[in-house]
From TrEMBL, chain B:
Keywords: 2Fe-2S, Iron, Iron-sulfur, Metal-binding, Oxidoreductase. CDD domains: fer2 (cd00207). Pfam families: Fer2 (PF00111), Fer2_2 (PF01799). Coiled coil: none annotated. The keyword Metal-binding applies. Residues 9-94 form the 2Fe-2S ferredoxin-type domain. It comes from the Bacteria. This is (2Fe-2S)-binding protein. Transmembrane segments: none annotated. One of its GO terms (molecular function) is 2 iron, 2 sulfur cluster binding. Gene3D superfamilies: 3.10.20.30, [2Fe-2S]-binding domain. The keyword Iron applies.
From TrEMBL, chain C:
It comes from the Bacteria. This is Xanthine dehydrogenase family protein subunit M. GO terms for molecular function: FAD binding; oxidoreductase activity. It holds the Pfam family FAD_binding_5. Residues 1-171 form the FAD-binding PCMH-type domain.
Length: 769, 175, 278
C-alpha cells in the first residue's frame, strides 16, 4: 500500500509547519545567549519595543505562568532567568510584522552579561560547583548482579567515546500559535508529542490544559529531536500577548542550538570470558553529558547502563552511570535513546574478546546469545521471543558483496583501487521498545465508519515514519472501508504518547486496530439485527459483509447514512522501576554486517554494503519497513564515520550543514535487509517496533569493519580520517586472568551510593591476580 | 538611515507560467521571494545555505531562447533580483494540473522514496532534470546527479530505486 | 542595464558593471552568489548592495587566444567539468554539488581566496594568469601571488576579475581533494599536479593561508617522476614546505601527512600517464 500522504508530498503540495500562514500573522524570533554561562545583569527592551512594526518583546518577567518546564525535571526556564547556562539559551522573544523587523528588534535588545566560567567537562560535573539549584547530576544509577568479581581466563577493558549527534531532521522547527475566542491558544506545530507540548505550554501560559489546543502541522522528520518543547511556548506567549497569530520558524543554525542532541558519552567496559568465549562477567561505567538542562537525561542514562550487556547472557556484573549537567548544549532524545552509545561499546568489547581468544566474531556472539527465559542483568526475564541466534544466523546467510564499488573519498578522487583495503565487521544489538521504568505507554484512537468511508482520529504524530499508512491499512482490512481519512492529530483526543522509542505501530497502531474491531463488531451487530441473522456468522471480507462466507452487502451500503463510531484505548502492561521487575515493555534484536573499503593512508572510508537481519515481529508493510531499516542504517553509519556536533568551550562550532556532515547519496551503502519474524505477543498481527535497532547496530558494525580493514583499535566514534591515518586511539587492555567462579549467583541489587567518582574501577592488573 | 524604498528592487518574474511583479529587498533570495512573497511553497527551506537541495527549482535565464530549458539550482543561493525577467519552474510545473503525476513522481511514490517528504520536491526536480538529459543513467550517474539533495529519512535506497524505475518507465514509453 | 536600483544593479556588459560599481561603492560584486549569500546569512560579511554579474554575457564561456585558453570569470563551474586541463575539470567536478555548480563561477571561486577552495591549487599548478579590468583599463597578472591572505587578494578597488587565462601547451594535470565524507565537502586539504616535458609542478590547497607551491617540492617531485627520488623524499619535502591550519575539522599533523600522500599519488599518476611508472 502507498502512503496516503504521498500524492501531496511528491507534488509539493503537502503543507508543513514551515508553510503555515494566516491573515494578519506576526513573526516571532528569539534572542539567544552568546555565552555558555553568564549572569544576566540587565535586559533593556525599550529600544526594541519602540521600533515600528514590533508588537511584543517578552522576557522571563513576562511569563504569566510557571517559568520552568522540562520532560523529566522541570529545571529549564522558558526564557532565561537571571543566568544563562548554554550558548543559545533563549533570553527574549519578539513578535513583529515581518521576520526582518523581528530580527532587527531582537538585535536592538540590550543585554548585559557577566560571563561566568563555563563548566564543560562532564567527568568533573559531579564534583563541580552546582550550575543549578537542582544540582549537577541528573541521575546516578548503579547495580550489581551475581558476582562482579568472577573471572574467566581472559579479561579485556577499554574506554569508548561517542560524539554528539544531531537529529538533523531536514525541516527546521516551525509552528504558528493563534489566540482563541475563549482566551486560550491554539498551536499548530511540527512535533512528536502533542500532549506533552500541551502540558508544558499550559504551565508557562498559566492556562488550563484544555485551553491550550495543540494540532500537528506537517513534520519534516523528527528522530527524537522534536520530543522537547522549543519554540512552542514562545509562539503561544507571543500570540497571547499580541492577540494575533504568531509564526515562528528556526533557521538551520537555530535548530542546532535549540533542539536536543544525542548524548555524547564516555563508556568504560571490562569483560571477562572463559576459554570458550562465554562471558563470565561484565563491568561498566558510563558518563553521559546531558548539557545545561535535564530533558530526558535521567531516562536515557538508564537505557545506556542497562543495555551495556548487549544481546548476551551476562550473569555477573556491575554497572554504574551518570548523566550530568554542564554548560554544553542540552541533550535528550534521539533515535536509539542511549542505546547506540552502549552498543558501540559492548560490540567493540565482543570483538576485542574474540580477538584475544582467536574466535570468529559471529561465533563468540552465538555462544553468548540471549535466549528466551534468560534473565537480564537488571533482573527482567526475557519472556517474549528472543531471537538473537536467529538474527545472527539470518545475517550469516546473506552473501558477501563482490570486490569493487565506490572508492573512499568519492568525488575527490584521491584514492585508487590499489590504495584501498576491504574490511568486514559485525554487530548484534538489543533495543528496548516503548517507554520504560513505569512511564505509562498508551494510546487512544477513535474510528468512525459511514457509507464505507472510515475516519481515524488519533493523537499519534506522523513525522514521516508512516503511521498514516498503517492506520489506513488497518481500516481497510478490518473494516473493508473504500476510503480512509486519517485526521490531523490534535489534543482533542487523549494522548498517544510520543512518536519515539519505536512505539507508535505498537501503541497507536493497536489502538486503531481495537477501535476498528469495535466498529466492525457494532456494524455487524446492527446488520444482524436488521436482517435477523446471527451476528456470530457475520464478518467483513473484501469490502463486503459476509454471512458464513457468502457476501451479503457491501460495507458501503450496509447501514446507509448511519455512522458507527468507537473509541478504544491501548496500554502496554505496566513497567516498573529499575530493580523491581520488568523495566521494559519488550526488546528487539538486530544483527548487521558492514563491508567497508578504507584508504588507510588517508583515513578515508567507503561503506560498501550493510546487510541487516532484524527481528521485526511481522512485516506490516515491506516498503515502509525497508525504508525504516535503510534510513536508520544510514544515520548510524553517519555517527560512525562523519557526524559530530563539535562543541568547543560550550560553543557549537558547526551549527550548519557545511561542517555538520550527514551522509549524502554517494555515502550511503547498499543495504540488504532480511528479517526474523516471530510475532510479538499481545500485538495485533504480532507487530513490533522497528525504527531504532537499525541505527543502534550500524554504529558498531561500521566501526568493526573499519577496524578489520585497518587493524586499529578505533575506540571513538565518529572515526575521523586522522584516527586511521595517524593511528590515534588506545587499544583495549588484554589481561590473562586466573579464573574465579562467581561466589554468589542471581539477583540484581541496586546500590545507592556511587562506588567511586566517574571514571574506571581499579585496574584488572591489581584485581585479577 | 536609508529609506525602505532604497533597500528594495522591483522586477518581473515568471513562476510556473504565471507572471509576477516582485518588490523585495535587494539581497533577498529567490527562495524567500517564492515562499514568502508569492506564496509558492513547493520549494522548501532545509538549510538556506545551499547544502540540502530542498529548495531546488529550475530557472531559465534566457527564456526567449528556444534552447534555454533552464537548469536546476538552489533557490536559496540566488539573489532573486538577478533572475529579473526570467522564468522559474518549481515542483508545481512537474506533473499535471489535476493531481496527475509525472513518471518521476509516480516512481517516488511507488518505490517508497517518500517518508517525511520535505526533501521530495527537491529530489523530484533534480531527478527530472537528470532524466531529461540522460534517460538511461547508471547508478553512479544517479548518485552524481543527486548528491546536492540531502534526505535524512530514507537512507537514499528507495530514492535510487525510484529514479531507476522512472528511467525504465520513460524508456518503455518512448520507443 | 537590465535593472538598476539604489542598491542593486543588473548590468549586461563589463562597462555597465564597472560604472554600476562606481556608483555604488559599498555594493558587493555578486556572480553566482554561492559564496556571498551564505556569508550574508551567517553575518560574516556585510554589504550595502549588489552588482550582479549574472547577466553579463561577455563574462561567460571559454575561448582560445593564441596559446592560452581564456575562461570568462562568470563561467559557471558546471561548464568546466569536461575541460581539457585535467586539473581544472577535476576541481570543477568535485566542487560543491550539481545544484551549486550551475551557479558557482570560476571567478567567484578565485576571488573568494579561501585556501580550501577547489580552483586555487588547480590554477596555481596550471600557472594561470588573471585578467583584471577596471575603469582605467585591463591588466593581466599571474595567479601565483594574487591571494595574499585568506579571503584577501590583489584585486583593486572597483576592479573586476574578467577572465582566467590558462596555457594550452599539452601536459598531464590532475587535482584531488579529501574531506570527511564522499561528496559535497570542503577540502580538508587538496593538491594539483601539472607534468610537462618531464617537469612536475605541484600546488596545494589548505596547506597554508594561501594556495601554496614550492620550488623545493617540485625539484623532489620531478626527481620522483623519473626515479631519482623515492616517495618518502617527496613526503619529507612537502612536510617541510607546508604550514597547514589546525582546526576542528582536522589537525595540522594530519593535514601535513595527507598533503604528502596526495603529492606522491599525483606524481605516480603523472608517471603512469608518461608511461614511466608502474
Ligand atoms: C553548498 C555549497 C558547496 C560548496 N562547495 C564548494 C567546494 O566544494 N569547493 C569550493 O571551492 N567551493 C565551494 N563552495 C563555494 C562557492 O560555491 C565557490 O567558491 C564558487 O565558485 C563561488 O562562485 P560564485 O560565483 O558563486 O561567487 P559569489 O558568491 O558570487 O562571489 C564570491 C566572491 O567573489 C567576488 N566576485 C565574484 N566574481 C567576481 C568577479 N568577476 N570580479 C570580482 N569579484 C568577484 C564576490 O564579490 C565575492 O566576494 C560551495 C558553496 C556552497 C553554497
Ligand atoms: S534550502 Fe537551499 S539548499 Fe537547503
Ligand atoms: S523523506 Fe524526510 S528528508 Fe527525505
Amino acid at each position: 500500500m502507498r502512503r496516503p500522504d504521498g500524492q501531496a508530498k511528491v507534488r509539493g503540495e503537502f503543507s508543513y509547519a514551515g508553510d503555515l500562514h494566516a491573515e494578519g500573522m506576526l513573526h516571532g524570533v528569539t534572542l539567544r545567549s552568546p555565552h555558555p554561562h553568564a549572569r544576566l545583569l540587565r535586559i533593556d527592551t525599550a529600544a526594541a519595543r519602540a521600533l515600528p512594526g514590533v508588537h511584543a518583546v517578552l522576557t522571563a518577567a513576562d511569563v504569566p505562568g510557571d517559568l520552568h518546564f522540562g520532560l523529566t525535571l522541570r529545571d529549564e526556564p522558558v526564557l532565561a532567568d537571571g543566568v544563562v547556562r548554554y550558548a543559545g539559551e533563549p533570553v527574549a522573544v519578539v513578535a513583529a510584522i515581518d521576520p526582518r523587523t523581528a530580527r532587527r528588534a531582537a538585535r536592538a535588545i540590550v543585554v548585559e552579561y557577566e560571563p561566568l566560567p563555563a563548566q564543560t567537562d562532564p567527568t568533573l560535573a559531579a564534583d563541580a560547583e552546582p550550575l543549578h539549584a537542582e544540582g549537577n547530576v541528573y541521575r546516578h544509577l548503579a547495580y550489581e548482579c551475581g558476582d562482579p568479581r568472577a573471572r574467566g581466563v581472559v579479561t579485556v577493558e577499554n574506554t569508548y567515546r561517542i560524539g554528539m549527534q544531531d537529529p538533523a531532521f531536514l525541516a527546521p522547527e516551525a509552528g504558528m500559535a493563534t489566540p482563541t475566542a475563549d482566551g486560550g491558544v491554539r498551536l499548530e506545530v511540527a512535533t512528536q508529542w502533542l500532549h506533552s507540548d500541551q502540558r508544558q505550554i499550559a504551565w508557562a501560559t498559566g492556562l488550563p490544559p484544555e485551553k491550550v489546543q495543540v494540532v500537528l502541522a506537517g513534520v519534516g522528520g523528527a528522530f527524537g529531536g522534536r520530543e522537547d518543547v522549543t519554540l512552542h511556548t514562545h509562539a503561544c506567549l507571543l500570540a497571547l500577548a499580541t492577540g494575533r497569530p504568531v509564526k515562528m520558524e528556526y533557521t538551520r543554525e537555530e535548530s542546532f542550538l535549540a533542539h536536543r542532541q544525542r548524548h555524547p558519552g564516555t563508556i568504560w567496559l571490562r569483560h571477562s570470558a572463559d576459554a570458550s568465549g562465554r562471558v563470565v562477567s561484565v563491568e561498566g561505567r558510563v558518563v553521559l553529558d546531558g548539557g545545561a538542562y535535564a530533558s530526558t537525561s535521567p531516562v536515557v542514562i538508564a537505557n545506556t547502563v542497562t543495555l551495556l550487556q548487549g544481546p548476551y547472557r551476562v550473569d555477573n556484573g556491575r554497572f554504574e552511570g551518570w548523566s550530568v549537567r554542564t554548560n554544553n548544549p542540552s541533550c535528550g532524545a534521539m533515535r536509539g535513546f542511549g542505546v547506540p552509545q552502549a552498543a558501540f561499546a559492548h560490540e567493540s568489547q565482543m570483538d576485542a574478546l574474540a580477538a584475544a581468544l582467536d574466535l570468529d566474531p559471529l561465533e563468540i556472539r552465538l555462544r553468548n546469545a540471549l535466549r528466551r527465559g534468560d534473565t537480564a542483568t537488571f533482573g527482567q526475564r526475557f519472556t517474549q521471543p528472543t531471537p538473537v541466534r536467529e538474527v545472527i544466523e539470518g545475517l550469516r546467510a546473506v552473501p558477501l558483496p563482490p570486490a569493487g564499488g565506490k572508492l573512499p573519498g568519492g568525488v575527490g578522487r584521491a584514492s585508487s583501487p590499489g590504495s584501498v583495503r576491504r574490511g568486514v565487521g559485525y554487530a548484534v544489538t538489543m533495543k528496548n521498545l516503548a517507554f520504560s521504568e513505569g512511564h505509562v505507554d498508551e494510546s487512544t484512537a477513535t474510528v468512525s465508519l459511514r457509507d464505507g468511508h472510515a475516519t481515524v482520529h488519533c493523537a499519534c504524530a506522523e513525522v514521516g515514519q508512516g503511521f498514516v499508512t498503517v492506520a489506513e491499512q488497518v481500516a481497510r482490512t478490518v473494516l473493508g472501508a473504500d476510503t480512509v481519512t486519517v485526521t490531523q492529530p490534535d489534543t482533542l483526543i487523549a494522548s498517544a504518547g510520543s512518536t519515539s522509542a519505536s512505539r507508535q505501530t505498537m501503541a497507536s497502531g493497536t489502538a486503531v486496530h481495537r477501535a476498528c474491531v469495535a466498529v466492525r463488531d457494532r456494524l455487524l451487530a446492527r446488520v444482524a439485527r436488521e436482517r435477523g441473522l446471527d451476528a456470530g456468522l457475520l464478518s467483513i471480507q473484501d469490502g463486503a459483509v459476509t454471512c458464513d462466507g457468502t457476501p451479503l452487502v457491501d460495507v458501503a451500503a450496509a447501514t446507509p447514512g448511519h455512522t458507527v463510531r468507537a473509541t478504544e484505548h491501548f496500554a502496554h502492561p505496566p513497567t516498573t522501576a529499575l530493580g523491581q521487575g520488568d523495566v521494559y515493555v519488550g526488546f528487539a534484536f538486530s544483527a548487521q554486517r558492514a563491508v567497508v573499503d578504507v584508504d588507510v593512508e588517508l583515513g578515508l572510508v567507503s561503506v560498501v554494503q550493510i546487510a541487516s537481519c532484524q527481528d521485526v515481529g511481522t512485516v506490516v508493510n515491506p516498503t515502509q519497513l525497508l525504508g525504516q531499516i535503510e534510513g536508520g542504517i544510514v544515520q548510524g553509519m553517519g555517527l560512525a564515520v562523519m557526524e559530530e556536533v563539535v562543541v568547543v568551550d560550550g560553543h557549537i562550532t558547526n551549527p550548519e550543514f557545511q561542517d555538520y556532515l550527514i551522509p549524502t547519496i554517494v555515502d550511503a551503502p547498499e543495504v540488504v535487509s532480511v528479517y526474523v519474524t516471530d510475532p510479538q505477543p499481545g500485538m495485533p498481527h504480532g507487530w513490533k517496533g522497528v525504527g531504532e535497532p537499525p541505527l543502534c547496530t550500524a554504529v558498531p558494525a561500521v566501526a568493526a569493519a573499519v577496524r578489520d580493514a585497518t587493524g586499529l583499535p578505533l575506540p571513538s566514534v565518529p572515526i575521523r580520517p586522522e584516527h586511521i591515518a595517524l593511528g590515534i586511539g588506545t587499544p583495549p587492555t588484554v589481561t590473562r586472568t586466573t579464573p574465579r567462579p562467581p561466589a554468589t549467583t542471581g539477583g540484581t541489587a541496586l546500590s545507592e551510593e556511587p562506588a567511586d567518582r566517574p571514571g574506571t574501577w581499579e585496574s584488572e592488573g591489581a584485581a585479577g591476580h | 538611515m536609508s529609506s525602505e524604498a532604497d533597500e528594495s528592487v522591483t522586477f518581473s518574474l515568471t513562476v510556473d507560467g504565471a507572471a509576477h511583479e516582485v518588490t523585495a529587498p535587494w539581497s533577498e533570495s529567490l527562495l524567500t521571494v517564492l515562499r514568502e512573497r508569492l506564496g509558492v511553497r513547493g520549494p522548501k527551506t532545509g538549510c538556506a545555505h545551499g547544502r540540502c537541495g530542498a529548495c531546488a527549482v529550475r530557472v531559465a535565464f534566457e527564456p526567449d531562447r528556444a534552447d534555454d530549458d533552464g537548469h536546476v539550482l538552489c533557490s536559496c543561493l540566488l539573489p532573486a533580483a538577478t533572475a529579473a525577467g526570467c522564468s522559474v519552474r518549481t515542483i508545481a510545473s512537474i506533473g499535471g494540473p489535476d493531481g496527475e503525476l509525472s513518471d518521476v513522481q509516480e516512481a517516488f511514490l511507488a518505490e517508497g522514496a517518500v517518508q517525511c517528504g520535505i526533501c521530495t520536491a527537491g529530489f523530484v526536480t533534480a531527478a527530472t532534470e537528470l532524466l531529461d538529459t540522460d534517460p538511461d543513467p547508471t547508478r553512479e550517474q544517479i548518485e552524481a546527479a543527486l548528491y546536492g539533495n540531502l534526505c535524512r529519512c530514507t537512507g537514499y535506497g528507495r530514492i535510487v530505486a525510484a529514479v531507476e524505475t522512472a528511467a525504465r518507465t520513460r524508456r518503455e514509453a518512448t520507443p | 542595464m537590465l535593472l538598476a536600483a539604489p542598491r542593486f544593479a543588473l548590468p549586461e556588459t563589463v562597462g555597465e558593471a564597472l560604472s554600476a560599481l562606481a556608483e555604488r561603492p559599498d555594493a558587493v560584486v555578486v556572480a553566482g552568489g554561492t559564496e556571498v549569500m551564505p556569508d550574508l546569512l551567517w553575518r560574516v560579511r556585510t554589504a550595502a548592495g549588489f552588482v550582479s554579474l549574472r547577466r553579463v554575457g561577455a563574462l561567460r564561456g571559454t575561448s582560445r587566444d593564441g596559446d592560452e585558453l581564456v575562461v570568462g570569470a562568470g563561467t559557471p563551474v558546471a561548464a568546466l567539468v569536461d575541460a581539457e586541463a585535467g586539473a581544472l575539470a577535476a576541481a570543477a567536478r568535485s566542487l560543491g554539488t550539481p545544484l551549486v555548480r550551475t551557479e558557482a563561477t570560476i571567478g567567484g571561486n578565485v576571488v573568494s581566496a579561501l585556501p580550501y577552495r577547489n580552483m586555487l591549487p588547480a590554477l596555481l599548478a596550471l600557472d594561470a594568469r588573471l585578467e583584471l579590468t577596471s575603469d582605467t583599463g585591463r591588466r593581466t597578472v599571474a595567479f601565483d601571488g594574487f591571494t595574499t591572505a585568506p579571503g584577501v587578494t590583489r584585486l583593486g578597488e572597483g576592479e573586476l576579475l574578467t577572465a582566467v587565462r590558462l596555457p594550452t601547451r599539452p601536459c598531464f594535470s590532475d587535482y584531488v581533494k579529501i574531506g570527511r565524507r564522499n561528496a559535497q565537502y570542503v577540502a580538508t586539504v587538496s593538491a594539483a599536479v601539472v607534468s610537462r616535458n618531464g617537469a612536475v609542478r605541484l600546488a596545494f590547497g589548505n596547506a597554508g593561508p594561501v594556495p601554496l607551491r614550492s620550488d623545493a617540492v617540485d625539484v623532489v617531485a620531478t626527481a620522483l617522476l623519473d626515479g631519482r627520488a623515492g616517495p618518502d623524499d617527496l613526503r619529507a619535502a612537502v612536510a617541510d614546505a607546508v604550514d597547514p591550519p589546525e582546526d576542528t575539522v582536522a589537525s595540522a599533523a594530519y593535514r601535513r601527512h595527507a598533503l604528502g600522500v596526495l603529492a606522491t599519488r599525483l606524481v605516480v599518476r603523472a608517471q603512469v600517464d608518461a608511461g614511466l611508472g608502474s
